[in-house]
Amino acid sequence: MSSSKFKGQFRSAVGSLMEQFVQEKRTCGYRYDEPARLLACFDRFLSDEALMECKLPRSISHKWLAKRPHESKGTHDHRICAVRQFALFMCRLGYAADVPDRWPMARGASSFSPRILTHAEIQRLLQAADQLTPTARSPMRHLIMPEVLRLLYGCGLRISEVLHLRVADVDLERGILTVRDGKFGKDRLIPPALPLVQRLRTYAQVMGDRPSDAYFFPSPSDGPLSHPAIYWLYRELLLRSGIPHAGRGKGPRLHDLRHNFAVHALLRWCQEGANLDVKLPVLATYLGHRSLAGTQCYLHLIAELFPEITARTNAAFGDVIPRRSGS
């Protein structure tokens, strides 16, 4: 999934305002690439609807915002959010614009829980990746996929962070990865475990000498690998591993490997008797979270999945692992 800056053009009656809105967001420090792409889709729709005036009528915007068949709630929310922010921008400038309701985006307590694989399932998944063979369309998949999965699970990286690593970002002498321009616009350093560093060294030797700005995991065209390509190969590996999948968006998702890294790290620390109040900030920094709030959700998963660990840890250190409300 490419994170290159969106450079499309807006052509509808409100297109110039969309360009101004996107520029304002970027001036404030937001990358705003995916919302800009969504607005470009909305812009094309407005052109198809023959919008002639610089306004945003409710009848037209709600037609585009209607939930589509098989569209996930997250994707629908992102479309609503992009249009809502743009409509508020138009209103601020004095233009007539219907502002979509906020309620469709309200998640409340999410019912989705990431699929936490057992260590045996993780081992089967990695073994299946190690047994991949090259194909005409994916001549390097047997080299790339085993290391991509190990970085997701072994370092808790986001898939976009893995796919956009450059050769210069992977310091194999010191064993340090540099994740640049992460989710919240921050760089961070990641030290993988030594066995993983050794695997990456072997991979780099097989790939040969490459420019420092080349993608560490290149596509056949030498650009970044796409998220869909990795996702569907991941689904194939789940099938080979005998790990059931509940359908797209229901898991185990590719992103769940990041959650598995966090939960398994916390579980290991609990079993070692470590103080989680001390360890949690370390995990938050490693994962690239802005605050502890994003990391504490994993404590709830520990409480649900391993109640005996929770009881032992809380007995030693107090109520470190919080209970779910109502439990």
TrEMBL record:
Q: Which UniProt keywords apply?
A: DNA integration, DNA recombination, DNA-binding, Plasmid
InterPro entries tied to this protein:
DNA_brk_join_enz, Integrase-like_cat_sf, Integrase_catalytic, Tyrosine_recombinase_XerCD
Query: What GO biological process terms are annotated to this protein in UniProt?
Result: DNA integration; DNA recombination
Asked whether the UniProt record includes Amino-acid biosynthesis among its keywords, one would answer no
The Tyr recombinase domain covers 112-311
State one molecular function term (GO). DNA binding
In terms of Pfam families, this protein maps to:
Phage_integrase (PF00589)
SUPFAM superfamilies linked: DNA breaking-rejoining enzymes
* Entry keyword DNA-binding: yes
Note the Gene3D superfamilies from the entry.
Intergrase catalytic core
Q: Which family does it belong to?
A: Belongs to the 'phage' integrase family.
The family database entries (PANTHER family) matched by this protein are listed as:
INTEGRASE_RECOMBINASE PROTEIN MJ0367-RELATED (PTHR30349:SF41), PHAGE INTEGRASE-RELATED (PTHR30349)
This chain belongs to the protein called Integrase/recombinase
Organism ancestry: Bacteria, Pseudomonadati, Pseudomonadota, Betaproteobacteria, Burkholderiales
